[in-house]
């Protein structure tokens, strides 16, 4: 990223991108009346030349002329700038561009425009009804998925048309035979009793000035499908499927038509479609013999279709999304197809992820079927299906004798391998492709090093995140669970924010976390929450780490985004958690009250020394872990209050954090520094959470003891969920860089690179989900090959190995402090911040004893370079630096 010579800003186009809130690109169906505006500078600016910025806002409602305003603003206010004009109304479209003005009054070229259109902001304008099939259905599993349709006439070709769509269950729309949108699993999973997302589609080009037809596919999804382990539960939110559709059509003369779902005008009809049954975990059965050609096109004979029935709906609960939809994010062709018996083929797609197979159907006779079962790994050459538990992941297709393409519609699978049975001829590579799906997040972080194993680990972490950020942050994508476990994301959120822009995605989930906390009395174990298995108690029990998500997730996204407004909205959730747990502490500040669930506290969950069938049996005392995490949460709650100007909470929670810290030291740290739990986890938490910062001798001892414990285990990991994110940072912080690197680069079990050495393409739930002999861990009741929690090591990879360390919220200030060691001689790190892209490359040449750094610093940021004893402050622009360094 070379720096342009010092031209005047009028000679260039200095604005790289413009965006609304945390939404990238053009936004359709926003709920924001006053969306904040951000823009990123393409190059560093020269303050003696820049006088200010101008925002050009064009806006219009359907059928109205466009109005334009140009607002002068401070050019330094380019991050989440407050909406500078009057609020937007429903269906209003606005576009924004930005330019700079120099000290002579000359303006640069305008940036590219970005547009935003609001949705149906007034509940009174939501004119449709929730309607579904009127026929009797079974109230439990394996229910036939319905179709619904309506025909209508338009007086002319529309100038503009918007379809607003949601459902009880899952829905996909077709207009005149064409699928609407590229998203799947719509409307996504929220706490449906509180809010139901509706999505907006531009369907102007789908419609014609004559007969039209709107068709809707419906599926069980999260709304009424079977969810969860121990047999799961069905009909969690209701037992009737329904859809809400509102089509607003605007003509060139400004007049409008509105077509809505309803049961009163007898124009909406329903029929059983070709999806015989569909479950997110079970899979989908499709019978092409039940297809009715042209059902979503005008002129179709629906005389044998039945009228729809209206279902209860509170339109105030319809909510515009702030997170991206679930869409295709990648495609994979088979790396191998092996015959596996008569008409059976075992497919290896090369990578494990959340995906679906799309088949080219040919050569089938009428009534001929094939099935596909999916699994993450093989064991003895066969699909390892035991870890799936109830989630069979089996799809079945029955042919009508016609050649076509088929992909399941309302299910997703976590797999690398698939067994196809019943294929009538040779299965060729061109007959199948895997389409990977995930929430369509903007990528913001990249890391590449001279060690290909490390690069593979980083790829695995990214793939596991993509696989599990599907509408909500889930634990795994394959077995009968797929829940939004709060503990997993509490630990992984900083890494997630480094890899992708997750502000909108996680803020949406935090809204539901807040709602469910109020409803069930404490932060639930997973969100959305419904009582299940051993987790159903009269009142949700407060669990350390899992409950600390109420603090750790808002903090992580605030630090990356610098968004105080969003943090302010989430702070009441922080207060709820801190106030609740404060009441559980013993007089000395230790959290030793046992929750009333079978495990008690979960502690250092999945400690590698724990028996395969007892995940909570960790070496580190649970009350130690709980107290350490609460001390940290209280400290962060104080820091958030400080940034928000909430002095009363700032002082109160700082005192609370000190009290808990003192209790932690008194109860768990001996006078000689030896901890009551002499474990990697205990020392890592004490060091990294700052609990020993006021006792330099204790902290120094803790660092030495932690390093010794790592050496004693022959540089293998001895931590579970609780300690893993912090063991490498704790070693690094206390001057034990060699132990940190040797632990990180070990490929002995348990370790991060052990998984890589075993061929993993995602991160595992257990350190030894697959044993060295190729067998799946005997604890198959809880063995997943696609969990992101242990991928929290990427935070250390970026900060220590990559050398990129955040110093202030929103990356206004950061450190460049690479710490080369051993075989890793160079690294390239990129992070797209709200202010622009940080691009950092370092290379260590041992023979010269020098460290070479190239760093691109975005406008609005500054960096402190720390290499050995050297320290330099650098500002926006491209920098080429050389330092003497000895590894």
Characterization of the model:
The chain is of the alpha+beta class. It has five domains: 9-118, Sandwich (Immunoglobulin-like), CATH 2.60.40.10; 123-319, Sandwich (Jelly Rolls), CATH 2.60.120; 326-439, Jelly Rolls (Sandwich); 445-801, Glycosyltransferase (Alpha/alpha barrel); 806-884, Sandwich (Maltose phosphorylase, domain 3). Helices cover 21% and strands 29% of the residues. The chain has 14 helices and 43 strands. Strands 19, 20, 23, 24, 25, 26, 29, 30, 31 and 32 form a ten-stranded mixed β-sheet that branches. A seven-stranded antiparallel β-sheet has the order 8-21-18-9-15-11-12. Strands 2-7-6-4-5 form a five-stranded mixed β-sheet, with no helix packed on it. Helix 7 (622-644) runs antiparallel to helix 8 (647-668). Mean pLDDT is 96; it is low at 1-6.
The helix/strand class is alpha+beta
Broad shape: globular
Low-pLDDT residue spans: 1-6
Report the end-to-end length measured between terminal Cα atoms: 28 Å
Report the β-strand fraction as a percent range. 25-35%
Could you describe the largest sheet, including whether it forms a barrel?
Answer: 10 strands, mixed
Query: How much helix, percentage-wise, in residues?
Result: 10-25%
CATH topology name of the largest domain: Glycosyltransferase
Average per-residue pLDDT, rounded, comes to 96
CATH architectural designation of the largest domain:
Alpha/alpha barrel
For the record, the count of structural domains works out to 5
Total count of strands = 43
Radius of gyration from the alpha-carbon trace, in angstroms: 28 Å
Number of helices: 14
What is the highest CATH level, the class of the largest domain?
Answer: Mainly Alpha
């Amino acid at each position: 990223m070379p720096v342009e010579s010092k031209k005047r800003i009028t000679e260039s186009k200095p604005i790289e991108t413009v965006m609304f809130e945390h939404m990238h690109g053009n936004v359709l169906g926003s709920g924001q009346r006053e969306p904040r505006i951000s823009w990123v500078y393409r190059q560093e600016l020269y303050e003696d030349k820049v006088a200010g910025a101008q925002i050009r806002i064009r806006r219009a409602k359907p059928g109205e002329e466009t109005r334009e305003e140009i607002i002068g603003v401070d050019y330094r206010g380019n991050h989440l700038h407050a909406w500078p004009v009057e609020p937007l109304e429903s269906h209003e479209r606005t576009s924004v561009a930005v330019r700079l003005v120099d000290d002579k009054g000359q303006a640069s070229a305008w940036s590219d425009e970005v547009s935003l259109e609001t949705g149906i902001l007034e509940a009174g304008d939501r004119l449709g009804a929730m309607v579904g099939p009127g026929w009797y259905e079974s109230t439990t599993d394996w229910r036939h998925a319905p179709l619904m349709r309506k025909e209508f006439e338009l007086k002319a070709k529309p100038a503009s048309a918007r379809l607003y769509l949601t459902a009880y269950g899952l829905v996909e729309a077709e207009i005149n035979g064409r699928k609407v949108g590229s998203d799947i699993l719509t409307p996504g999973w929220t706490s449906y009793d509180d809010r139901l997302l509706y999505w907006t589609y531009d369907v102007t080009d789908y419609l014609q000035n004559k007969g039209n037809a709107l068709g809707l596919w419906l599926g069980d999804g999260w709304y009424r499908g079977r969810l969860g382990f121990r047999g799961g539960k069905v009909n969690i939110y209701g037992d009737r499927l329904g859809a809400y559709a509102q089509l607003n059509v605007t003509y060139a003369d400004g007049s409008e038509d509105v077509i809505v779902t309803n049961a009163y005008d007898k124009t909406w009809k329903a029929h059983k479609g070709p999806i015989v049954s569909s479950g997110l975990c079970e899979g989908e059965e499709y019978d092409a013999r039940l297809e009715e050609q042209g059902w979503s096109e005008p002129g179709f004979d629906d005389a044998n279709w039945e009228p729809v029935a209206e279902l209860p709906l509170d339109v105030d609960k319809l909510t515009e999304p702030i997170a991206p939809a679930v869409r295709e994010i990648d495609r994979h062709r088979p790396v191998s197809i092996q015959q596996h018996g008569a008409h059976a083929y075992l497919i290896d797609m090369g990578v494990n992820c959340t995906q679906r197979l799309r088949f080219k159907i040919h050569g089938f006779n009428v009534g001929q079927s094939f099935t596909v079962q999916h699994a993450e790994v093989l064991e003895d050459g066969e699909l390892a299906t035991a870890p799936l538990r109830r989630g069979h992941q089996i799809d079945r297709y029955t042919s009508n004798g016609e050649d076509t393409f088929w992909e399941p519609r309302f299910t997703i699978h976590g797999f690398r391998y698939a067994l196809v049975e019943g294929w009538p001829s040779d299965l060729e590579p061109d007959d199948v492709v895997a389409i990977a799906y995930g929430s369509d997040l903007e990528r913001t972080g990249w890391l590449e090093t001279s060690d290909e194993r490390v690069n593979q680990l980083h790829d695995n972490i990214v793939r596991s995140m993509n696989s599990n950020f599907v509408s909500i942050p889930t634990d795994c994508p394959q077995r009968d669970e797929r829940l939004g476990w709060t503990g997993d994301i509490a630990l992984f959120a900083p890494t997630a924010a480094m890899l992708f822009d997750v502000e909108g995605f996680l803020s949406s989930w935090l809204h539901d976390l807040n709602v469910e906390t109020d409803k069930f009395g404490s932060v639930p174990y997973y969100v959305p929450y419904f009582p299940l298995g051993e987790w159903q108690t009269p009142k949700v029990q407060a669990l350390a780490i899992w409950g600390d998500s109420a603090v750790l997730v808002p903090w992580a996204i605030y630090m990356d985004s610098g968004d105080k407004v969003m943090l302010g909205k989430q702070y009441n959730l922080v207060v709820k958690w801190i106030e609740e747990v404060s009441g559980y502490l013993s007089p000395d500040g230790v959290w030793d009250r046992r929750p009333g669930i079978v495990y008690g506290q979960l502690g250092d969950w999945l400690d590698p020394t724990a028996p395969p069938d007892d995940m909570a049996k960790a070496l580190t005392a649970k009350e130690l872990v709980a107290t350490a995490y609460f001390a940290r949460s209280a400290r962060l709650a104080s820091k958030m209050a400080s940034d928000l100007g909430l002095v009363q909470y700032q002082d109160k929670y700082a005192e609370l954090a000190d009290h808990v810290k003192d209790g932690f030291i008194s109860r768990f740290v001996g006078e000689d520094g030896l901890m009551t739990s002499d474990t990697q986890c205990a020392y890592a938490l004490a060091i990294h959470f700052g609990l020993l910062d006021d006792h330099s001798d204790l902290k120094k001892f803790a660092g030495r003891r932690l390093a010794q414990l790592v050496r004693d285990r022959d540089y293998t990991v001895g931590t579970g969920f609780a300690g893993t994110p912090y063991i490498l940072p704790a070693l690094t912080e206390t001057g034990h860089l060699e132990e940190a690197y040797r632990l990180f680069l070990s490929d002995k079990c348990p370790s991060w690179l052990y998984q890589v050495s075993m061929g993993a393409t995602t991160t595992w739930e257990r350190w030894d989900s697959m044993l060295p002999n190729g067998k799946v861990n005997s604890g198959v009741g809880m063995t997943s090959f696609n969990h992101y929690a242990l991928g929290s090591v990427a935070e250390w990879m970026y900060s220590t190995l990559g050398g990129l360390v955040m110093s202030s919220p929103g990356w206004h200030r950061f450190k460049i402090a690479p710490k080369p060691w051993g075989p890793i001689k160079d690294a390239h790190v990129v992070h797209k911040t709200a202010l622009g892209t940080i691009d950092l490359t370092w290379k260590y040449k041992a023979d010269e004893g020098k460290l070479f750094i190239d760093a691109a610093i975005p406008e609005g940021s500054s960096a402190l370079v720390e290499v050995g004893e050297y320290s330099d402050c650098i500002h926006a622009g491209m920098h080429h630096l050389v330092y003497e360094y000895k590894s």
